[in-house]
Design goal:
- The complex is a heterotetramer of chains A (307), B (94), C (206) and D (546).
- With 307 residues, chain A is of the alpha+beta class.
- Chain A is 32% helix and 22% strand.
- Chain A has helices at 9-40, 56-81, 190-199, 210-217, 259-267, 291-304; strands at residues 92-99, 102-106, 112-113, 116-119, 124-130, 135-139, 144-148, 154-158, 164-170, 183-188, 243-248, 251-256, 272-274.
- In chain A, the strands form 3 sheets. In chain A, strands 3-2-1-5-8 form a 5-stranded mixed sheet, with no helix packed on it. A 5-stranded mixed sheet of chain A has the order 4-10-9-6-7, with helices on one face.
- The radius of gyration of chain A is 30 Å and the shape is flat.
- Chain B is an all-alpha fold and 94 residues long.
- Chain B has one domain.
- Helix content of chain B is 77%, strand content 0%.
- Chain B has helices at 11-34, 38-59, 67-92.
- The radius of gyration of chain B is 18 Å and the shape is flat.
- Chain C has helices at 15-46, 48-57, 60-85, 89-119, 127-130, 134-169, 179-204.
- With 546 residues, chain D is mainly alpha-helical.
- In chain D, helix 8 runs antiparallel to helix 9 (286-300).
- The radius of gyration of chain D is 23 Å and the shape is globular.
- Classes of the chains: A alpha+beta (307), B mainly alpha (94), C mainly alpha (206), D mainly alpha (546).
- At the A-D interface, helix 1, helix 2, strand 7 and strand 9 of A face helix 3, helix 8, helix 9, helix 10 and helix 11 of D.
- Bound molecules: heme-A (2 copies), dinuclear copper ion and copper (II) ion.
Chain lengths: 307, 94, 206, 546
Amino acid sequence: MFEGASNLAAGVDRTFILILAIAVFFIVGITTFMIWTLFKYSRKKNIPARQFTGSVTLEIIWTVIPLILVMVIFFYGWKGYAPMRKVPADAMKVTAIGRMWQWSFDYGNGKLSKILVLPINKAVRMDLHSVDVNHGFFIPAFRVKEDVIPGYKNYLWFIPKYKGDYDIFCTSYCGLQHSGMNTKARVVENSVFVHWLDSLPVTGNIPDPEGLVLIKNSGCIACHSLDGAKLVGPSFQGVYGKKHIVVTDGKEVEKVVDDAYIATSIIDPGKDVVKGFNKGLMQSYRDKLTDAQIVQITDYLKTLSGK
Amino acid sequence: MSTEKHHISTYMSHGAVLVILLSLTALSVGMAELHLGAISVAVALLVASVKGTTVLTYFMHLKYESLFTKIMVAAVFLMYALVIIFLFFDYLFR
Amino acid sequence: MAEIKNIAPSEHHDYQGSKMGMWIFIFTELFLFGGLFLVYAVFRTQYSADFHKAAEETNTFIGTLNTIVLLISSMTVAMSITAIQSNNKGRAIRLLLVTIVLALIFMVNKYFEWGHKFELRLYPGSVVLTNLPKGELLFFGLYFMMTGLHALHVLVGMILLTVTIFRIKSGHVHSGNFSLIENSGLYWHLVDLIWIFLFPMMYLIT
Amino acid sequence: MSNSETHPQVSYLEYQGKYKGILGWITSTDHKRIALLYLYCIIIFFFVAAFLGLTMSIEKMRPGQDFMNAQTYNGFFTVHGIIMIFMIVIPGLAAVFGNFALPLLIGARDVAFPRLNLFSWYLYVTGAILAVLSQLLKGGAPDTGWTFYVPYSAGSSTNVIWALTAAFVLGFSSILTGLNFIVTIHRMRAPGMTWFKMPLFPWALYATAWIQVLATPIVGITLLMVIAERVLHIGFFDPALGGDPVLFQHLFWIYSHPAVYIMILPAMGVITEIFPTFSQKPVFGYGAIAISSLAIAFVGYFVWGHHMFTSGISYWSKWFFSFLTFIVAVPSAIKVFNWISTMYGGSIQMRPPLLYAISFVFLFMIGGFTGLFLGALATNVQLHDTTFVVAHFHYIIFGGMGFAFFAGLHYWYPKMFGRMYSDRWAYIAWGFTFVGFNLLYFPQFIIGIQGMPRRYFDYLPQFQWGHFLSGIGAFILVTGLILMAWNLIYHKKRGAIAPANPWKGVTLEWQIASPPPVENFDEIPVIKHNPYWFGTEEEIRREKKS
Ligand code: HEA
Ligand code: HEA
Ligand code: CUA
Ligand SMILES: [Cu+2]
């Protein structure tokens, strides 16, 4: 908390100190009061208890004072937060892409990087984009955090104030390697940044391969994951070239997934049913996919097995 | 138990309520056929609310229940309305 | 609150209490469907055009028919309570039987309606459905979930009413003790009440 | 349970109904027996879930993998969360002490629907078994976190459906308990007990019951929707099927925020019973405490959005939910001030229940004030989904509700079992528990502020010191809890016979034998005074000169 490295830190830290002060005051005060009464009014002293039942004045006092205090806290919390939503028009734009379990940063024009490099004292607007599930983009030193939700256009912005390396975490639980999904933000001089960006190779922004487009449009991913997760059907990850047991005409046989096998699976899914999955869920795509398209799908599946 | 008084509705009154409900149904189906756009949504929901209230008051006997039951039902619908409103605080101001 | 008596709770039957319990149960049911209504409301504002298109797909005629059937059945239940209160057991039972028959008609209609959707391959997870525009997909998801859950309640209501008939026959329910019939009546009206809202949401809104 | 031949003196523990032994217990509709059934289940499940928590803490004492892998860890915190929340703290105080003490406190012979009450317990057990099975079955423990956020939970290949079903069934058990209590409080108060002569624990239960009834169905249907999403591929929340993931968060928290008040309100109620008894004076500001319970329940229903400040909800709804969050803090403040004023001017006897009650107030304040950090928009951005949140809710749930549970257990133990435990061992156990607890969770505040995210199996080295202290704290805490359990279990059969009224309490449950007879009261008492009427000081000025 204690090295606020962006323009937004002051507003957060001020709120923090304010609440901390109020909290310590009340916690210490009330605890002391309780312990004091324990001794002062101990039964050992044999003083009969007094039988009063309340006091309207006191009741009002301790309704109104906390009410005022919480309103003050609310106000500061809001004040510290409001600037976080007001992105200056000249902010540099970077898209953070979250996928299980990796960040990548898109600087436009197909320039993708695994770490976030930023020029010092310049406003950046980060657009947050998720490929699969919810992630959370968090840079503690900058006091910024926003969830990365598929289908949502969330964003955040800040101005880095000091040079150095800062941790970036994924805060929204996203599965197995959630805790491994971290990287660095590096704040550098503007000139260094420009140089770095120039030398960054163009890798991203390549459109989806046709096979993937077909898989998405034909609704395959409703049942087949691309990342190894088991849905209704077996995952496409590593499926090509895999050797596995299928049930054909009620008998278990071992088959290797090759071009022909995939074609049969799509045209006549009931023929070879992968063990552990149910027959009849996948419908035939006979009239919906042409042979050429099936080849494209097969080619794409090969890439998922690194072939 | 038998000391408590129960309101006994007549068969006729039930029949009358049914007639009202059926005509309201006819009304809302008719309105929908007219394709009035945005208004038809409002009308359909309004008619549904009137029908719902009728069922609550007469068929479900709310009219003859204790004041507390009435308040309870009203409060529950109010709570639900508040939930919708607060949810739409998000969706309408995105 | 007037009479609290010194007898064991098991021997004492608290008429107001059990009715209050039933009302509270009805509230939970309302909120159960309320959750679905919330989802409907949100998607409907976001995809009104798609919802419009998808809603034309639903059969207004069957919907209207079922509305009428349920309204009538609501009335017959209400009447059967009147019958019990005026000590007319035979009539009460007949009215309840009519209610159950109406409920059956409702279910048969529902069967044909869903069956038709399935013929069009418009069932959850079907290829046709998954390839529809987002809003229509959501509409049909809600359609199946809401009408399905409602149909489940119709079934439960039918069972409850059947039990009531047997209790009337065996003489447990009579003009001096009609909690059971009143409470199953309340439940049945709830089923109707929910349908009153489902009907315009699924069949009418254009 | 016919009372025709029961002698009024037979205690509910010894009473022989139609069946003997364990069958006599699990078919009994006696609210006191059902309370104990809940108690035993809750202790067993608490042990299971706490064991999962303990292993998580130990695993994290060093960065990297020590003795469990990431998948196991993810399964552990999910099942830990599900069991703790849905099976322990939500039914916890309401079902155990509510069932045991509510009819006694309002002068009734049982709850309004005794058979429904037993049925709730069966639902609870069914749900519990499902939850435990989800950990053990073939697909692997669910790994979504107790919040089941979609899309992850729509895709995860583990036993998510089992866990969802378990939570659904447990929810219905909770609804039925709530329904039962509302009707009981309305219909079965002893003659003369007007609303404002009712003790404050029933008031708290009343407020709780309404939340149970009105909030739980929403999560029920939401979980059903996720199940439908997984099984039938109906899109509601998963963007791949056209749905909206943030809508799920809304629906989930519409229930799960009020649920935290389901946990804390009965705890506050128990504490409110304890302070007057040990101070021998009426509770301070009866009306304010009663009404603030209702206020917390009502306003608390509408603050769910504070869990979603970083999810991309609209600016004005953040503003609004933050505002309401601060409003709920005020009734909590009122209660705290009223409790400490109850002690002021009393004749205070230090006994274990009071010690636990005081620790409750202390820990609850820490938990509550850290809630304010989370409720303020600016600080929430920094703290959301960090171990600060973990520390906040462990302080308020374990420190608050847990300690209130221990307080209530020590308070009503003599009434439940008719025996006394050892005070000395109770103090020693308290010492370990209190110290261990703070050592376990306080460091998590600090590393949370520094940016340590939650649900992390592994972490960067700069956070190690905090995790290490936590691990040590966990061991001390466990020692304390085992001592406490031993003290209570050992003395259940061997402790000194408890008098009917060991603490000189004035509420109705202390006016009957310990343990209470089957039918509670030989004759239903007629209520004349307010519930905390200790007499003297000229018999309260000759009854206010009436
Ligand atoms: C019993 C359970 C319980 C209770 C009672 C509370 C009570 C409160 N909680 Fe907490 N909360 C949880 C359980 C609970 N919480 C859980 C389980 C989570 C995490 C869920 C998850 O993500 O897994 C959570 C998360 C959580 C968040 C979301 C964090 C995030 O993920 O970003 C927030 C944000 O506003 C919050 C706020 C509060 C507030 C303001 C209160 C208030 O009600 C507190 C009020 C109390 C006091 C203020 C102290 C006493 C008062 C005084 C001593 C008098 C003086 C007071 C003043 C001057 C103000 N809580
Ligand atoms: C009631 C609520 C409750 C309680 C009591 C606890 C108790 C504990 N919890 Fe917890 N915890 C949660 C609710 C609770 N937890 C929730 C909701 C989450 C969030 C899950 C999520 O992210 O989805 C969580 C998450 C959570 C995490 C974070 C995981 C992460 O984000 O990475 C950790 C990490 O250490 C943890 C640890 C512990 C530990 C060490 C205890 C210890 O205090 C336990 C010590 C106790 C013992 C070991 C038992 C000994 C007992 C006996 C012998 C019998 C007792 C007998 C009697 C009472 C009579 N818990
Ligand atoms: Cu990505 Cu957590
Ligand atoms: Cu909350």
